[in-house]
Amino acid sequence: MEKIDKEELLRYIDECFDKISDKNDILEIIAMDDNNDPIKSTIRDRQLNLDYTGLFGSLLMKARRAVRLIDANDQLVEVRVRTKKHETFITPDIYVTFITVQNPIDKI
Q1: What are phi and psi of 46, to 5 degrees?
Q2: What are the residues whose beta carbons fall under 8 Å from the beta carbon of 34, sequence distance 6 or more?
Q3: Residue 53 phi, psi dihedral angles, 5° rounding
Q4: Which is the most buried residue in 12, 38, 83, 107, by most CB within 10 A?
Q5: How far apart are CA 68 and CA 86, in angstroms?
């Protein structure tokens, strides 16, 4: 993995936020680092950010471990968690992990 400086990382995150927020029904977006610390978020409450990144970061780590147990050559691309009210996508990226919360979209 190629290292980038902080300024480039923030520019990259801003670009990703713009692309994600262009989609319909997006409620919240969080970018977190490898330590599950929020880097940027649309959620203003710091504690809620920490709750989201801590819980979803833990889920991501467990999902990665499960994928490796099933097939050591496979790689986790995304985790989707859906409830009646919301749908959350946890998307690991080269530099950061994005958590996106949206209204569920039914294709029925």
Answers
A1: -60, -45
A2: 97
A3: -65, -35
A4: 38
A5: 28
